[in-house]
Amino acid sequence: MRMSFGQEMRMAQKQVLAPRMIQSMEILQLPMMALEERIEQEIQNNETLEVEEAEGESAAGESGAASAEAPPGMGEQRTVDEKPLVVDQDHANQADFERSYDWANEYPDTDDDRSRPSAGRIDESSDRYLDAMANMQERPETLFHYLHEQLSNYDLTEAERQAADKVIYNLDANGYLPMPLAELIDPDGPKDQLQQLEKALGVVQGMDPLGVAARDLKECLLLQIRPEMPQARQLRRVVSDHLEDLAGNRLPLIEKKTGFSIAEIERLRDLLHGLHPKPGAMFTSPFVPSVKPDVYVEQHADGHWKVRLEEVDLPNLRISPVYRQMLLSPDTDPATREYIKRKINSAQWLIESIEQRRSTLVKTTQAIVDHQTRFLSEGPEAIEPLKMQQIADRIGMHVTTISRAVDDKWLQTPRGLFPLRRFFVGGTVSADGDEVAWDTVRIKLQEIVDGEPKDDPYCDDALVEELGKRGITVARRTVTKYRKAMGIPSSRQRRDWKLPRSAKPAE
Q: Does the pTM of the predicted model rise above 0.85?
């Protein structure tokens, strides 16, 4: 929605509807497993919301229960498309948001849970739920959870806290940050994201375990060398300037350059062996989130790719006919009627938010798929540069809605399961003037390094030239940045590692 509330609604309506819009955005942002949990929670907390069972299931038992609980005339079964009943017939033809405004204005979403009907029944089921949760096996603590908990010890703005979370959740299993900070920037976010990420990186690197969030081994070790450590200054010098020589056991060369004795260099090496080159590996299990596909895509006979939802684990929700009838019954006391109105209104908003989530997710994913057909047909090497604003323009939604729609959502394709954000990538301009995605640059770079001569690996200038032969024009500093982010050593290191020991140059 491009227009502001002030342009579309009266100010009074805006004040009431804003919480409902927030709820809709929250539902849109939830991944499949979280949505299932949210629905279960809402069913627990709202007795007017119930699951519509499959046709014919326990029909006899249900009719008996309904006749016992409901007033006469309560035989009709309603669908999830029903709207909340209203007593005032003057409002019967109002638009949904107008009716919701009237109800929410008269009956705000606050209530005393202990005074509601069936409070004892809900509390009893909640106790059973808590007992079941208490008996579940505790999941081993992950590096990511451990770091996230430490954030509460830092005085950060909300934007800086979100930046720190972004750094934390992009760490690999060893605790390293495997990509440049620039790749964590949301192209549709604020302009000062890089500064926030740099500050956030410093915060995370100061956390326990020491060495976490380093970009390479050298930085990891330097983060672990504290001033109070013995020979800290000498350690820093060796790690900063001579780590490769130390790894290659070129101790005489280090002695010549530093003036340290061989015995002292060996002591420094022993101290370095006490540090952790993989600080994240000390956690028993790396964080691998369980995910379910939110959307599926298949290629039809005519060659077109079509997306679909398959929400087999989501229940069909409806407003309870029993409580609808209680709302209309003249025997219902005013306090109970007011309570039921609030709860039915809340349940209907949840149902409509879920339907809106489905519609938005399908539209967004289909637009992404239409842009990335080569990725689906040919593989990751053929991914096209894509920005969220392009999708927003294509389907007529605001870019922030697109961002929420793709956040933590997964697409099942014939080539595997991918997060929707995977399809949004930056790019560069090729020699032919075409845009090339950065992912394609990385794939080509890895292919070149894998196929380079073992006795004469390509330097970064040569890598630039080889990429140019493949139609990809990039600067040398770009190649250097991506080579380091991909964990590809320098040409000298690759030569030393690939040559047989007898063929290596004398030290």
A: no
